[in-house]
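Sample intake sheet
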Amino acid sequence: MNIKAKLFVCGEERELLTTNLNYNRLTDWNGKPTSALLGGAISVTFEPQMYDDTFVDWIKSDRRGNKKKRHPFNLYQLRDGKIVFYKDEFDGVELFQYNFQDGVLVNYYEAFDNQKGMQVTLTISPAMQDYRFFNNSTDWRRKSRTRYIKPWQESFIPPIEDKPYKAKTNDNRIKITKYTIRNTNNVEIEEYFAGDTIVLHVETINAIGKTITLNLNDKSYDFKYKNTVLKDDTLKDYVINSNLEKIILEVIVPEKEEIN
C-alpha cells in the first residue's frame, strides 16, 4: 500500500519525504530496563518552500518576555501540530495521525546535495503526543491508550470519563417553582394594605389541568377572590390553566367575630 504524509504546524503544510519517531528505554548489561520511557521526538524531511523561515523563527524564539514563565521554561516556544498519513494520495483516505501539543523545535537542519537537491529536516520534541489518532478523532479530552504526556507539558486537561447512558426518569409531580405578590403595575411588593388589589404570580410545573390550594396565612388582613371572602385566607381547589397563573385578590379588613 502506498502511503503519503503531510505535516501541519505553525500554520504551514509540508508534503513529507520522510518521517520517523523513536521511543526507547535504557537497559543494563543483561537487558533489564533501567529507565522510564524516553524519546518521543519526531523528525520530518521535506523539500524547502518559500515560508520555511517560519520554522527558523520557531527555533529561535523564546518566552523570556513572559515573566510568568520561569527558567528554563522561558527558553523555548511551544507549538501544536500533526502529521497526517493518507492512502495512495494526499487527497486520499486518511489512515491515522501523529498528533502533538506543546511541541518544541529542537533541531532545524537544511542540506543541499547535488543528487538529492535541497532538503529541510525538523526535529520536534512534544510534551503531549498521541501517535495513533484515527478517523479525525483528535479530541485530547478523550482517553487514549497511545497517548504519552511528559511532566513539562503546559496544556494537559484531564480526559473526560466515559459514563454509561442513564435514561431520564419522568417526574410528573406537581411543583410550585415560584410564588410572588405584585401590585397592579406588575411590581413585586412585600407590603399591602386594606383596599389594595394584589396579584399572586404562581409558577408551576406539571400542574396544568390540576387543582392546587393556596394559603396566604395573613393575621392582619383578609382577602376576596371574585367577590368572595376567602375562609382562613385559603384559596381552595384553584384550577391551573398555564405555567404562570396571575390570581387577582382584594385586600380587606378582617371581619370581626361575633361574641355570644
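Comment: The chain has a mean pLDDT of 86. The domain at 3-149 is CATH 2.30.110.20 (Pnp Oxidase; Chain A).
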